[in-house]
Amino acid sequence: MTDKRLQEIVPGAILTTGTRADADDCLRLRTAVSLELERDGTPELCLAAESPEEFRAFFDDQESRALVLRTADGELVGFGIATYRGESRLKFRALIPDFDASPRNVAYVKLIQVAPKYRGHGLQRLFFSELETWARENGSAYAVGIVSPNNVASVKNFLRGGYREAERFIFEPFGYERIRMIKELVGADS
User: Fold this and answer.
1) Mean residue pLDDT across the chain
2) CA 189: distance to chain centroid?
3) What global pTM score does this model have?
4) Domains along the chain?
5) Model confidence over 126-170: pLDDT tens digits?
6) What CA–CA distance (Å, rounded) separates 88 from 13?
7) Which CA distances in Å does 41 have to 10, 35, 150, 155, 169?
């Protein structure tokens, strides 16, 4: 997405590296999205499994990157998180033959959320692109993610972004179906 296109969608948009100070705003958005999905009868579309403190840690550790998109007046538009830690990332080990080539060979795109009024404009793909750039710059050969097959928009964005479906599985303890998605970053277009 070009800077001009981003400014058309969100005039005065500012994309920054998230800090601990941003974490609570992002946590509120995550909570609001989870409640929205529960009300809609589709809680399986996005699972928030970590505690608030575990979530906040993604905003200030060396193994993760949080990006925050805000309007010019500071309203939170959305956020994205990628990390080199976590059990979910390790579940890809059997799917990527050289998973352990280096500690940062595989980056996990953990979560991307966009506020409801800004959805449908390609902002999720902007976060994918920016997080993949960070991963590539840190030596990652792969970016991976997990998505509900019922989250049609996110599945399409993964596929449009160059990811491929690697496997389907049941996410325990919730019993929801998930898809593991993989993208090779080495030599891949941004």
Assistant:
1) 91
2) 18
3) 0.92
4) 3-184 (3.40.630.30)
5) 999 999 999 999 999 999 999 999 999 999 999 999 999 999 999
6) 31
7) 30, 10, 12, 19, 21
